[in-house]
Amino acid sequence: MFEEPQKPARFDPRDPLGVDELLSGEDLAFRDAVRGWAGERVLPHITEWYERGELPVVRELARELGGLGALGMSLTGYGCAGATQIQYGLVCLELEAADSGIRSLVSVQGSLAMYAIHRYGSEEQKRRWLPAMAAGEVIGCFGLTEPDHGSDPAGMRTHARRDGSDWVLTGRKMWITNGSVAGVAVIWARTDEGIRGFAVPTETPGFSAVDIPHKWSLRASVTSELVLDGVRLPADAVLPGAVGLRAPLSCLSHARYGIVWGSMGAARSSFAAALEYARTREQFGRPIGGFQLTQAKLADMAVELHKGILLAHHLGVRMDAGRLLPEQVSFGKLNNVREAIDICRTARTILGANGISLEYPVMRHAANLESVLTYEGTVEMHQLVLGKALTGLDAFR
Predict the structure, then answer these.
(1) Which fold has domain 247-391?
(2) How many C-beta neighbours within 10 Å does residue 82 have?
(3) Which one of 38, 45, 118, 319 has the fewest CB atoms closer than 10 angstroms to its CB?
(4) Domain Acyl-CoA oxidase/dehydrogenase middle spans what residues (predicted)?
(5) Which residues are CB-neighbours of 178 under 8 A, at least 6 positions away?
């Protein structure tokens, strides 16, 4: 039977490794829907929001993201989309290409708060919270980090004590995304039984949240301090499946996977701005993209960007197969965020003085990534995770 010859492949500057060929039609539909939404709802306003240091329409955006199926999208049941991890990763990439703060909103909602309830909560808790959270009608936050305990959550001071059939929570949590707009907070506290998780309705007396001012990164994101002053909860507020530190750490591993993809979105946006600028900015009588040093920068940026996307895709395939290890998540988070920052910094040099202007996205992405670099595990913590895995020796203590 005669077969028509295939058309020769062509190099695509937007996808030089042909990663799109690995994606299904449904993958592309998720990606393109979120890319279109971000282009219409976020990009026209993000410079103003970032400059003002606020996200004034966070509740509206949450409902719209819920309508897209982007909240808790890889979870099943309870109104969640039941999407693949590849699809979730692509959504994180597109959201962070707009701004890290928007991706953080989705990551904390779905991969931390909703994931904790979905994996460790009771059936009653799942039915109470997850459908409304999937729709964006209720925003969630995740309270693990404390003012004096970030990389060492085992040292947390927030505690919960039994009082009859109730629990009483006291403590503080710091650097909590979505804190002041959340309707439910997943709070981790020390108890006589070990570390436990609690689904805390934020209108409960004794619970308060105050936004953290003077941020120079993640400015278009709600970041709060939580105070729990004798918060009394019924017995059914505790997440029954979560006992010990492994529970919150498993949630963090799920969220870090989204960062592996998301950081490449910030890098892609900065690279695209630098590439377009290099094609049109003229010096010495021709576009600067025609000079060897500029081309070397663009080539190196493209190599690291698309290697990072390919790494993210590989980890997504493993996660969908149930074979992704925490050490592999550390591998991806460590590499991709570091490379994303380097891409942003190199892009800034191509733009010259214009690179520091909010007219271009580069400096905004670079500043945001300084937070992404250290939240949900600092560079040093992920290096030590890999160091332990490689040597079999624990260097944490």
Answers:
(1) Butyryl-CoA Dehydrogenase, subunit A; domain 3 (1.20.140)
(2) 12
(3) 45
(4) 141-231
(5) 58, 105, 108, 109, 113, 139, 140, 141, 222, 224
Residue 185's nearest CA partner among 249, 228, 236 is 228
Query: What angle, 0 to 180 degrees and rounded to 10, lies between the N-to-C axes of helices 100-107 and 362-374?
Result: 40
Please confirm, yes or no, whether 376 is among the known catalytic residues. yes
Radius of gyration of the chain (CA): 22
Choose the CATH number for 19-134 among 1.10.540.10, 3.90.650.10, 1.10.10.10, 3.50.50.60.
1.10.540.10
What are 141's two structure tokens? 């936050």
Is the distance from CB of 344 to CB of 299 less than 8 angstroms? no
> Is the four-CA dihedral 55, 30, 376, 339 of positive or negative sign?
negative
What are 49-69's pLDDT values in tens digits?
999 999 999 999 999 999 999
CB under 8 Å to 244, separation ≥6 — which residues?
194, 195
Residue 44: Cβ within 10 Å count: 9
Report the mean per-residue pLDDT for the chain.
94
Q: Please determine, for residue 18, whether its predicted confidence score (pLDDT) is greater than 80.
A: yes
157, 171 contact by CB (below 8 A)? yes
Beta strands 223-233 and 166-177, pairing class: antiparallel
119 three-state secondary structure: helix
Tokens of 245: 């530190």
Higher-scoring residue by pLDDT: 93, 246 = 93
Which run of H or of E encompasses 162? strand 159-163
Q: DSSP character for 4?
A: P
Q: Is residue 153 very low, low, confident or very high in pLDDT (cuts 50, 70, 90)?
A: confident
Backbone region of residue 18 per phi and psi (left: phi > 0; alpha: psi in -120 to 50; beta: other values):
left
Catalytic annotation, pick one of 26, 339, 376, 380 = 376
The tokens for 370 are 């300084």
Cβ distance 227 to 176 under 8 Å?
no
Q: What are the pLDDT digits (tens) for 269-285?
A: 999 999 999 999 999 99
User: Which tokens belong to 173?
Assistant: 């949590």
* Structural fold of domain 140-244: Butyryl-CoA Dehydrogenase, subunit A; domain 2 (2.40.110)
